[in-house]
Amino acid sequence: MRIYRPYLFPALLILLGMILSILLWIGALPDLLISLRIDLGNVIFILDLILAACWLALVYTRSRSRQQAVARVISQAADEKRRFLRRLDHELKNPLTAIRAGLANLAETHLEDLQRQALASVEAQTLRLSRLSSDLRKLAELETRPLERTAVNVSEMLQEAFTLAQDQPNAAHRSLKLTTPQAPWPLPSIQGDRDLLFLAVHNLLDNAIKFTPPGGTIEMRGFEDGSALVIEVADTGQGIAEDELAHVGEELYRGRGARGIPGNGLGLSLVQAIINLHGGKVSIRSREGKGTVVTLKLPVN
Amino acid sequence: MEKKPKILLVDDESAITANLAPILERAGLVVAVADDGEAALQKAAEFGPDLVILDILMPKMDGREVLRRLRHDGNWTPVILLTQVGDSVERAMALEEGADDYLNKPFDPHELVARIRAVLRRARPGQPPLSTAARLVCKDLAFDRRSKRAWLAGEELTLTPKALVLLEYMMTHPDELLTRERLLDVVWGWDYPVGTRATDTRVAELRRALKDDAINPSYIETVPGQGYRFVGEVRTQDAA
């Protein structure tokens, strides 16, 4: 109801003008005015309309500028977040370089079994941090790098990502399926960056495999829907709780169910950034304990 | 006995130099350390290194400025830049300004040793490295570094920007085994899922453009299971 309120007054004004004009027209007003009724009626109605239009325009511009201000605040917040992530990445790089060199030196010394174990575990954790730094850089670079567009054969790209996923050791004991249409015609090619689109699909499959226990099913589908090419990656995994669904695309967000599963919470942010660059949309449906389907919609040109 | 190569290691983070120096020494290199740009120029003159490892982000004078001054003074000592910003523009600039190679932080220290060896092997003492040349020529192939254009037998090649980046890197690093991971790093600057055909498709694009035969290559050779190698002899040529 609140959004209609600014328009209430100009609407009343129009109504009033119309009533007044009609009254004049049918001669329900004092004799003095009757001789002038046609002209006066029109003039009042037109003046009234002009006033109402000005009012409407004013109200509309105000709400527009308010919307723009809101959009500005949101984009400023996004910029700030990017800058923060970039700085975080910078601050990680030097210590990580030093730690990796230090560990390489340590590995060359004589170590007891227990020390070797500790070293191996610290090395693994350092690599994990290095990966985080690398993923942060990917996100930052996606913002600045111009998109290189070539014709991408989507069927072939999906097939490659699928084969790579099947070869993963984690994929064992899970049923993986890929469906792409052959009839009436195969998937159209789209203009885009093949490497990036591949990375997006690869990340989705990776996630699906990670969050699906043995015995589960992972399906990837490609199809056409009007002027969009749709890629779906669905799984019968643990699913995402309703209250977490809105947050899974946020940088570094990790759901309750993701604890104990390797990852840094940047995978889906990357997918989103890549699909946005291509003018597409990402959506997620999930039921806890049932599974998840991530849908990518890409415009076909 | 062959003389041990001398390396000047420049980084303002003492934690990095302190940990990297022993690794380089174990690899049979003599190491001197400088912790800012001005000290680096001074040490470069006194110590006479065979190769300089140069961090980009440093107080007083940054690594790029050090590199520019070295090259301006006609000092062609090979340089490996340690990049930090890591974006593609930065990496392309590193090569254009006359670095021989670059490595993104954080890196595997053994990878640094491998790069040092490759650069030392390629170095031609006292002569400008390939990476500083304005124009590279190999058989019928010519590459203009400034305009980022390439010609085969006088005819300009139409290549995607990524294929051009790849070709430039291969031509400035001839006769060197370039692993798929490294080429992905050249094109993307960050690790990309291994096992993909991302590099292979680019190389295929280059081969098509260069009319190169994969079985009997005159430019790009496949090293089975490992990567690629640019086999042609690359000469420098001053731009016309």
Separation of the first and last Cα atoms of chain A: 40 Å
Cα-to-Cα separation, first versus last residue of chain B? 44 Å
Q: Percent helix among the residues of chain A?
A: 55-70%
In the sheet with the most strands of chain A, the strands line up as: 2-4-5-7-6
Number of helical elements of chain B: 8
Structural class of chain A: alpha+beta
Estimate the mean pLDDT confidence of chain A: 84
Radius of gyration of chain B: 18 Å
Number of helices of chain A: 8
Counting copies of identical and different chains, the oligomeric state is heterodimer
How would you describe the shape of chain B? globular
- Secondary-structure content class of chain B: alpha/beta
Structural features, described:
The complex is a heterodimer of chains A (301) and B (240). Chain A is an alpha+beta fold and 301 residues long. Chain A contains 8 helices and 7 strands; from the N terminus they run ααααβαββαββααββ. Chain A is elongated. The mean pLDDT of chain A is 84. With 240 residues, chain B is an alpha/beta fold. Chain B is 38% helix and 21% strand. Chain B has helices spanning 14-26, 37-47, 63-72, 88-96, 109-122, 161-172, 180-188, 198-210, and strands spanning 6-10, 30-34, 51-55, 79-83, 101-104, 135-138, 141-144, 149-152, 155-156, 178-179, 220-223, 227-230, 235-237. Classes of the chains: A alpha+beta (301), B alpha/beta (240). Chains A and B meet through α3, α4 and α6 of A and α1 of B.
Primary descriptors:
heterodimer; A: 301 residues; alpha+beta; 58% helix; B: 240 residues; alpha/beta; 8 helices; 21% strand
